Amino acid sequence: MLKTRSQMKRILSSLIATLALSVGLQALAKPMLLDGNVTTERVENLATQIPWNRSLGQAEDAAYRDGKMVFWVHMLGTMTGAT
Amino acid sequence: MSLSQDPAFSALKNYFECGYRDITNEPYAGVSGVHQVGGNAVDTSNGAGPHNLQLFMLSADGTVLNCLPGYWHSQDLIPEMQLAAQLNQVWLDPKLSRAQKDQMFTQMHLAHIHEHSPQMVRRSRMQSFDMKYEAEHRLGRSDTILNKGAVQMALLSKGKMPPEAFKTTDEIFHERMASRPFVNYNQFDVAAYADYGKPKYDKKEDYRNADGQVDKLAARNAPEMGNAAADQQQMRPRRGRRGMAGMLLNASSNLWGNGPKWGNNGSN
């Protein structure tokens, strides 16, 4: 028996919802793992494109001069080393 | 690292002078596994690992405008940076008195909680082990717990902590900031501010396979960095079972780290 257009829409909608749910559940079950090559590239980008002060005083002076705020990170390790 | 991704990356370049400090030897620092630059990384929830990482947004004179404890998703950093910029305008406004500035600081931080998107709130759920830690070690005095009764039931039944009984980390840090209006960085009590959950946080990224499962044998002797004393303190439970039952029956209602509530004059 041929399905009506509205019946087909309902079937497609529930199929899409089921697929989305399974993808969502998979994403929840499996933490998104970033490969080491990707992280290397991102860290290099972060470390080279942005000058990271090691002195808060110098960062404050530069921020005052340029009319900016200061973004000051407390972290275990160094920006380009082990963390 | 989320800072390396847009939109946060562009915002850092355009609106901030950036710097960092290695807190490995600080007494308030937590413990983590050692992760080299070329190692793997995993996504996690906002506010995870608060003892290991704190992101300060300061005015040029060192006044703390905002501080995010732990990891934060790139897209969730932007609204907080915008709030910092608005607070900076308040701080620099010569027409406002200090009392007025402080009140606005408190109100703006508390109001920001309600501006967070549902997606950001979902990304800001406390980690289950952090909830468990707060329940076991600070049940009577934690400012992270919304429903003490539900948490007590979970402890007694040795079940999982109900997430809805805990605040999300975005709410926790805004409430804590609200009680610290325009404090200079040098006077900011980061140890208390960033203290919730387990001192040790490590996702063992370098020991996960493609399916995300941890190779527990390989991870067992993984090197660590940070405050080893904090890790040792965590391993000793605060009370035994009988002590825990007694504590549950006699839990006080004093909250730890709580600041002024919405509508109060934040004049501290």
Describe it:
- The complex is a heterodimer of chains A (83) and B (268).
- By secondary structure, chain A is an alpha+beta fold.
- Chain A has two domains: 32 residues; 50 residues, no CATH class.
- In chain A, 60% of the residues lie in helices and 13% in strands.
- Chain A has three helices and three strands, in the order αβαβαβ.
- The radius of gyration of chain A is 25 Å and the shape is elongated.
- Chain B has 268 residues and is an alpha+beta fold.
- Chain B has one domain.
- Chain B has a two-stranded antiparallel ribbon with strand order 2-6. In chain B, strands 4-5 form a two-stranded antiparallel sheet.
- The C terminus of chain B is likely disordered.
- At the A-B interface, strand 1, helix 2, strand 2, helix 3 and strand 3 of A face helix 1, strand 1, strand 3, strand 4 and helix 2 of B.
- Strand 1 of chain A pairs antiparallel with strand 3 of chain B, so a sheet runs across the interface.
Q: Low-confidence parts of chain B lasting 5 or more residues at pLDDT below 50?
A: 234-268
The biggest beta sheet of chain B reads: 2 strands, antiparallel
Q: What is the distance, rounded to the nearest whole angstrom, between the alpha carbons of the first and last residues of chain B? A: 35 Å
Strand order of the largest sheet of chain B: 2-6
**Largest interface here, residues on each chain?**
A-B, 47 and 57 residues
Order of helices and strands of chain B: HEEEEEHHHHHHHHEHH
Instruction: Indicate the radius of gyration of chain A in whole angstroms.
Output: 25 Å
